[in-house]
Amino acid sequence: MTAHAHDLRTPLPDFDAGLNSSTAWKKHLSISDAPQPPSPVSEEKPLFARAVRDVLGNEDNRELGLKAGETIEILNPRIGDEWALAKKPDGDMGLIPHGCYVTIHDFTGTSPSPTSPTFPPSGSIDGPIRMQSTGESIITSSLYTLRQSVLGGKSLNRFSHFVVTGAEEWIINGYDPPVATSRSHERFRTDVTVDETDEEVGRHYVEANMSWREKTPAFNVLVHSPEKHSSVTGAYTLYSVTSIFPPSSPEMEPTRITVHRRFSHFNFLHTALSRSLPGIVLPPLPAKQYAGRFQGEFVEARRGDLEKWLQRIVRHPVVRYTEVVVFFLGCESDLEWKRLLPTYLSTLPAGPAFYASVFHPDFNLDVEDCSATIGRFEHHVRVFDERIGTLRGVMGGFREARNGFLGVVSEGPKHDHEHETEEKEKEKYLNDEGVWCWRDGCEDCLHTTKAVQKMAECMQGVANLHEDSAKRTTLAIHDMVKDMSHPSMMYGPLIDTHKQALARYRDSESIEARAEDLTRVATEYLDEEIALYEQVLARLRAARAGFEQKDAAGRGVSPVLPTPVPQPTAHVYDPAPVRPVSTAVNMLIDGIGASGDKTGLKFWS
């Protein structure tokens, strides 16, 4: 289940099997369900060039570093006004400025010499160039938004989750692991390791209580410090992702690893997990945003959504030790990230390989218990979905009530002319000392007025507490409840997979019984036929042996007389009309003295 076993240049398939964002993976799934913009790679004859000066590329902006005299291939000569997309012979791609290279045809006048490095056609091995970019076209974003709004994120795939995830193929054909191929030594800086062999890491075990076995201890993940960055391909937001691992002893400090990721990297992680873990329900990734995505409120909301999504990912006992999660959380080098990312992008869906890697060797599953467990879980998910919807409505109403209370206490006049009118009205019921009374010097009204003002200030403080609670505690709980909403949609495909697998198991019992009956009938028939043909073979061999024994002993002492061959019964012949009795008697009289065979023929003719 290692992604390194695939070649870095394995092209991504073009067919989308219609995988939902939270389910997994299926063959021919691109990195995004949204239509991809046209590839900038030209299908014409490759354009080669040679660098005329050294270029120190900025890796953060995807710029390609060059040395004077180095041969490159120009994939797209115009990226913006001052840049071009180029590729080195070793496969590295990036942006280079205009003026740092000249095409080979400009100073040779002929095609590249045989000694020059030759490049295969740009579209032959690499397929479309899939560079991480946030500058999607308006058409692409519109189609993606339309699909999410109209279809609700669902797929039009006519095949069930049981088929597309490889569960059916695993039940019917099993799984033959591919032959292990040697690969070069690859490593990247990380402290996140699993102290097991690659084969053991790829195995997932189920405990006796129908839960996944935890191989690695739980840890926490924080997404913080969003920063806006700009490049020639557009602006994007970069988030800091910090993994906090608990210490082995209380005296030690927790281990922290911080990497920097953008939203497209989270999208890559979700897609890679969907491909490698088709039998596990993954939380949906926060939706994309194209308008106002750099506003402070949206960036903070996006940061919180990504943090909660990533925390749910690492809480799963199987997902958190997968290779792609370790790569996402632990790869601190940008060079290693860019070098290894195509390997994970080109990884095909696991299919039946995932189900072949799930083991429960310590116990056997009872079909009735499995059926009851599926029914209880489906009922739980359905009831949970209904109760969560009700709870969300209550929490939303509670927050609105708190905000309404704050508005009642703190809301004042909205316009200047209303303020002037209110001042005139105050003059009618307030004295010169500002006391709520019609006469001056009233101590009782002064005390009452002060008490009312103090009560108003107290209510204002209570309203502020309600506002703070609505913004912090209640909103956080509301968002948490929102993340858990609609579990029936998330777990529906998984429940369907288990139901169909259980139905296949029950059908297999009746099919096995019918197969046993068919085997018994066929065996008895073949045994009878074998016995018959053995008798025929014995007689044929005896007849043939008579031709080989030429001595007198083999011929015997009895005279050579023909053995009469018995005639078949009458029903063997074709039916014919029976002659009258008188005609038959006359034929018998006329045939006296003739051979019996001739008479018999006349009688039946």
TrEMBL record:
<keyword id="KW-0728">SH3 domain</keyword>
<feature type="domain" description="PX">
    <location>
        <begin position="217"/>
        <end position="335"/>
    </location>
</feature>
<feature type="domain" description="SH3">
    <location>
        <begin position="44"/>
        <end position="106"/>
    </location>
</feature>
<dbReference type="InterPro" id="IPR036028">
    <property type="entry name" value="SH3-like_dom_sf"/>
</dbReference>
<protein>
    <submittedName>
        <fullName>Sorting nexin lst-4</fullName>
    </submittedName>
</protein>
<dbReference type="InterPro" id="IPR027267">
    <property type="entry name" value="AH/BAR_dom_sf"/>
</dbReference>
<dbReference type="Pfam" id="PF07653">
    <property type="entry name" value="SH3_2"/>
</dbReference>
<dbReference type="GO" id="GO:0035091">
    <property type="term" value="F:phosphatidylinositol binding"/>
</dbReference>
<dbReference type="InterPro" id="IPR001452">
    <property type="entry name" value="SH3_domain"/>
</dbReference>
<dbReference type="GO" id="GO:0005886">
    <property type="term" value="C:plasma membrane"/>
</dbReference>
<dbReference type="Pfam" id="PF00787">
    <property type="entry name" value="PX"/>
</dbReference>
<dbReference type="InterPro" id="IPR001683">
    <property type="entry name" value="PX_dom"/>
</dbReference>
<dbReference type="GO" id="GO:0006897">
    <property type="term" value="P:endocytosis"/>
</dbReference>
<dbReference type="GO" id="GO:0097320">
    <property type="term" value="P:plasma membrane tubulation"/>
</dbReference>
<dbReference type="GO" id="GO:0016197">
    <property type="term" value="P:endosomal transport"/>
</dbReference>
<dbReference type="GO" id="GO:0031410">
    <property type="term" value="C:cytoplasmic vesicle"/>
</dbReference>
<dbReference type="InterPro" id="IPR036871">
    <property type="entry name" value="PX_dom_sf"/>
</dbReference>
